[in-house]
Design goal:
The protein has 97 residues and is an alpha+beta fold. The protein contains three helices and seven strands. The chain has a single domain, classed as Arc Repressor Mutant, subunit A (Orthogonal Bundle), CATH 1.10.10. The strands form two sheets. A four-stranded antiparallel beta sheet has the order 1-2-3-4. Helix 2 packs across helix 3.
């Protein structure tokens, strides 16, 4: 919830504005200017996979949630100090493993 009102920027300079965050999910404005709501369930799924398996790829997020939000989910989870994003395929990893 501390992300509400912040703008998150990727290394390539594109950004997402986080409009609102609550227990239902997150509303953002994408780098292309489109408003999108991302339900909390996909974040729960991704975090559970990271904690269980040590990592999840952006492609796996896309397979589980076809709402075209994997880039935003990756950008947002990269803000969590316990996680890091790297590689090709783009992967979110648990730093503790």
């Amino acid at each position: 919830m501390p992300l509400a009102g912040r703008t998150l920027t990727r290394p390539d300079g594109s950004s997402n504005a986080i409009v609102a965050v609550d227990w239902a999910g997150l509303e953002r404005i994408t780098s292309s200017g489109r408003r999108q709501f991302i339900p909390v369930e996909i974040f729960r799924f991704a975090i559970e996979r990271i904690l269980r398996d040590g990592a999840i790829t952006r492609g796996e997020v896309d397979q589980h949630y076809p709402g075209r939000a994997s880039s935003g989910i990756t950008l947002i989870l990269a803000q969590v100090p316990l996680f890091e994003v790297s590689g090709r395929p783009l992967t979110i990893r648990w730093k503790g493993r």
